[in-house]
Design goal:
About 30% of the residues lie in helices and about 25% in strands. The chain contains ten helices and 16 strands. The protein is globular.
């Protein structure tokens, strides 16, 4: 089968021919129809997780999110041959199972992936664009609890997580301030943002403070480093507010001194989250992030695009 893989951390991933993985006890084999690109995947290739002491099997196929069809099932598997499913590999899965989603086939079990049935109203590309970023946004919304009439500042609003977080917060009646490049402002407003700040042409902290001198109720920062977050963005949160970051840039103890509840957020998907995302999309309550598709043969281009750090919505790979 074709797979986008590495033989060692730090090398450039390439498309190659690898044996098709066969399911063991409790596992299913999935014919991948589509897979989305996440920053985590190229960070894994660079060795970021290995530096923490993890040991990985090689060759290692990259990729976390996927949608596809169950084509084989091991003894005791929870899913049946023929089922259309979507989901994502769990943190740590690559340490035990080297078969990621940038391939024509992968294997999955309850220990390595969160899965849900893909309903008829959700196509393969859209399903692949949901799991990691949609699930992260869903979990962050639960943690931040944005309420009607509150203000939420979202830094990195046009990316994968931001595209879903803006929608989920706006649906709760929250006033969302989106930080995004100017050419993404129409997009974030279409998702429900009430205001947009161009981080390329404006000082974000000054612009938000001028419009909201009393501060904002909450911040979701998906992009800033620790210095920027703690010295420029965190002071915008009113005393008693909330702050979450997915890049682990917050100092929760320092922020707690003025009653700000803060978290460096890491997401672990569940089957229930996947099913909830599918229900939200098929009901029309959530729209799939804008997607740009590439064939598997152009996986290298998609991988490189992801590393630029400026992607609107989601990049999705199709295997057919």
């Amino acid at each position: 089968m074709r797979a986008f893989a590495i033989d060692a951390f730090g090398e450039t991933p390439r498309l190659r021919d690898l044996p098709r993985p066969e399911p063991g006890r409790g596992e299913v084999q999935i014919r991948v129809g589509a897979a989305s690109v996440n920053p985590l995947d190229w960070k894994v290739a660079a060795g970021a997780l290995a530096a923490a002491g993890a040991v990985f099997p090689f060759p290692l196929t990259l990729g976390s999110d996927f949608s596809g069809r169950v084509t084989a099932a091991g003894e005791g598997a929870a899913w049946e041959v023929g089922q259309e499913v979507f989901g994502m590999r769990l943190p740590g899965a690559a340490e035990h199972d080297p078969h990621g989603s940038y391939a024509e086939y992968l294997t999955a079990s309850p220990q390595t992936a969160a899965l849900a049935v893909r309903p008829e109203g959700l196509d393969e590309v859209s399903a692949a664009a949901l799991p990691m970023t949609g699930g992260t946004a869903l979990a962050l919304t639960r943690w931040l609890e944005p309420a009607e009439g509150e203000t939420l500042l979202v830094v990195g609003a046009a990316g994968g997580v931001g595209s879903y977080a803006v929608q989920l917060a706006a649906a709760r009646g929250c006033h969302v301030i989106a930080v995004a490049a100017g050419d993404d402002h129409a997009y974030v407003r279409s998702l429900g943002a009430r205001e947009a700040v161009d981080h390329r042409t404006a000082d974000v902290a000054e612009a938000v403070r001028a419009a909201h001198p009393g501060g904002v109720d909450a911040v979701l920062d998906l992009a800033d480093d620790r210095e920027t977050l703690m010295t420029r963005i965190a002071p915008l949160v009113r005393d008693g507010g909330r702050l979450a970051t997915t890049v682990f840039a917050a100092d929760p103890d320092a922020l707690a001194a003025r009653g700000v509840r803060a978290v460096n957020f890491g997401y672990r998907a569940t089957d229930g989250d996947m099913a909830e995302l599918a229900a939200l999309v098929t009901s029309g309550a959530l729209h799939v992030a804008q997607t740009t598709t590439f064939p598997l043969t152009a996986m290298g281009e998609a991988h490189t695009t992801s590393t630029t750090g400026h992607v609107r919505g989601k990049l999705v790979i199709t295997t057919d």
